[in-house]
């Protein structure tokens, strides 16, 4: 396949940045999107040019490190797919592809396509944990959990924290991420003791980090590689309101 | 804790948007149903208008309550608009929207249009400033016409006889319907009334509700402008 790539190049957070055009003329359909960029980078290195910087780690869709906004959509147009799991056969020969970083004020560009997503870590540090000692794993049936809650908690816990929700949201809101993290604990018995404290701490941290407010565009759900549902945002609103009223 | 400290919180702001939204939506619907009585005739409509006027202080309490809701709604909307604008300093060169709609992306502009329309509407019918010729007429009713009351029917019919006035109303209502198309379902989601089976129903309800409001409110200026209703005045 032959592709025309328009790739965002930016030296650092203060640089203005620009779209740079590259031709990739020997792309195999079996490559992942990241392998395609690897090959491009090898070419650039051979030509003594600066390779394109992008984030990746597991390359199997579980770590949430890869990013990229491809043709205006975080992780590209494939449903429920991370960039590392997106294959070139999903594109057509001769296509023009625009590759940009995940854009948000809270995610400043470090270089080219790499952005700083540490605000998510700080939100987790504010309350995305359980501080009681839960001991070794106990007998699974000793702690009854309704099937519906167990499944919902699993759906919420599917979030890999990649930040596509923020990148997709016209408001730069992080509600899908925060709602998934708050919900996964709020739905399980282990999460109950710190339930209200957690909702307050994580949401307040989210606000302090400069994320926007949800206006229910639902772009986040459409871009989420793990298909985390916006119903968790509805749940987060309730958790937060309850905590604001009763936890003081 | 000041009255407006909720504005610092994204979620509390959303909840105020939705809470005031509920009141405004209920008002918009009630106002429509009440006013549609103009299609029945002078007697019925003036009785209704007279009833509202006769509420006296209660009417003012309701008006003040609605006004406070509207002001809170607008202040919060403006604050959220600027916050949400600030979170995306660098724009995408290419952006593909998937789930958001024209309605959802133009809430603030639609809201401003509704506000301007609302000011005009209040000056026109409630205060009688925009066109004083239609205001202050009296209807005599009862046996031998011994009773007198405001002829609200005359005011509305004469007001909507003017094609430009009617067009302003029709455009205003279209903006309102666009606002409602997104906001009614958004309000349920914000107030945590959502679920995998419920949400699609609510989204459809939101669309149908916006359509009903548009139809109901457009019917009045349209039929009057065309002389179908109130032909003989
Ligand atoms: C009669 C008039 C109005 C009605 C019935 C109404 C109703 C609503 C409702 C129900 C919502 C949804 C709240 C939510 O998503 O939780 C909403 C949102 C909104 N309204 Fe209004 N509204 C009216 C007037 C206005 C005005 C005058 C403005 C303007 C400045 C405005 C600006 C907005 C904005 C920007 C939103 C989106 C905020 C968000 O989704 O978070 N509205 N409106
Ligand atoms: S690199 Fe780990 S999810 Fe894509």
Outline:
The complex is a heterodimer of chains A (248) and B (233). With 248 residues, chain A is an alpha+beta fold. In chain A, 35% of the residues lie in helices and 11% in strands.
Question: Overview of this structure, please?
Answer:
The complex is a heterodimer of chains A (248) and B (233). With 248 residues, chain A is α+β, with helices and mostly antiparallel strands. Chain A has two domains: 3-111, Ubiquitin-like (UB roll); 118-130 and 144-247, Fumarate Reductase Iron-sulfur Protein, Chain B, domain 2 (Orthogonal Bundle). Chain A is 35% helix and 11% strand. Chain A is built from eight helices and seven strands. Chain A has helices at residues 33-46, 118-127, 147-157, 164-168, 175-186, 195-208, 219-223, 231-246; strands at 3-9, 18-24, 69-70, 73-74, 96-100, 109-111, 114-115. Chain A has a five-stranded mixed beta sheet. In chain A, a hairpin with a 2-residue loop joins strand 3 and strand 4. In chain A, helix 2 (118-127) packs antiparallel against helix 6, helix 5 (175-186) crosses helix 8 and helix 6 crosses helix 8. Chain A is elongated. The N and C termini of chain A lie far apart (61 Å). In chain A, 46% of the residues are buried. The model of chain A has no long low-confidence stretch (mean pLDDT 96). Chain B is elongated, with a radius of gyration of 20 Å. Chain B has a two-stranded antiparallel ribbon. Chain B has a single domain (5-84, 105-225), classed as 3 helical TM bundles of succinate and fumarate reductases (Up-down Bundle). In chain B, helix 1 (10-35) packs across helix 7 (163-190). With 233 residues, chain B is mostly helical. Chain B contains eight helices and two strands, in the order αααααββααα. Classes of the chains: A alpha+beta (248), B mainly alpha (233). The interface between A and B is large, with 51 and 41 residues.
């Amino acid at each position: 396949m032959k592709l025309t790539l328009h790739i965002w190049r930016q030296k650092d957070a203060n640089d203005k940045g620009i779209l740079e055009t590259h031709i990739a003329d020997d792309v195999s359909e079996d490559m992942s999107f990241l392998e395609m960029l690897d090959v491009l980078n090898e070419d650039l290195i051979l030509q003594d040019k600066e390779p394109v910087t992008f984030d990746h780690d597991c390359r199997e869709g579980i770590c949430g490190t890869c990013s990229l906004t491809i043709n205006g959509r975080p992780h590209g147009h494939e449903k429920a797919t991370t960039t590392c799991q997106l294959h070139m056969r999903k594109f057509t020969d001769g296509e023009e592809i625009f590759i940009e970083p995940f854009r948000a004020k809270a995610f400043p560009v470090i270089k080219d396509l790499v952005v700083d997503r540490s605000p998510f870590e700080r939100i987790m540090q504010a309350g995305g944990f359980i501080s009681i000692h839960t001991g070794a794993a106990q007998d699974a049936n000793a702690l009854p959990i309704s099937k519906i809650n167990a499944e919902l908690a699993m759906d919420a816990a599917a979030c890999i924290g990649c930040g596509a929700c923020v990148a997709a949201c016209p408001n730069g809101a992080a509600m899908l991420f925060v709602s998934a993290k708050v919900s996964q604990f709020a739905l399980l018995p282990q999460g109950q003791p710190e339930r209200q404290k957690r909702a307050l701490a994580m949401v307040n941290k989210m606000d302090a980090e400069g994320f926007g407010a949800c206006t229910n565009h639902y772009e986040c759900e459409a871009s989420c590689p793990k298909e985390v549902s916006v119903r968790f945002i509805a749940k987060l609103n309730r958790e937060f309101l309850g905590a604001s009223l009763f936890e003081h | 804790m000041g009255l407006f400290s909720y504005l610092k919180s994204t979620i509390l702001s959303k909840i105020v948007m939705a809470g005031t939204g509920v009141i405004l939506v209920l008002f918009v619907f009630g106002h429509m149903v009440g006013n549609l009585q103009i299609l029945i005739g002078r007697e019925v409509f003036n009785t209704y208008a007279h009833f509202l006027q006769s509420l006296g202080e209660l009417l003012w309490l309701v008006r003040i309550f609605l006004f406070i809701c509207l002001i809170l709604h607008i202040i919060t909307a403006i604050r959220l608009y600027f916050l949400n604008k600030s979170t995306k300093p660098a724009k995408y060169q290419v952006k593909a929207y998937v789930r958001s709609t024209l309605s959802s992306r133009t809430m603030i502009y639609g809201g401003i249009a509704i506000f301007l329309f609302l000011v005009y509407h209040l000056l026109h019918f409630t205060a009688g400033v925009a066109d004083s010729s239609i205001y202050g007429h009296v209807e005599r009713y009862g046996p031998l016409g011994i009773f007198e009351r405001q002829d609200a029917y005359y005011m509305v019919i004469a007001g909507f006889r003017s094609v430009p006035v009617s067009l302003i109303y029709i455009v205003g209502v279209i903006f309102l319907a666009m606002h409602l198309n997104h906001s009614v379902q958004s309000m349920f989601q914000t107030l945590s009334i959502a679920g995998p089976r419920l949400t699609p129903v609510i989204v459809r309800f939101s669309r149908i509700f916006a359509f009903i409001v548009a139809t109901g409110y457009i019917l009045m200026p349209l039929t009057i402008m065309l002389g179908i209703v109130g032909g003989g005045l």
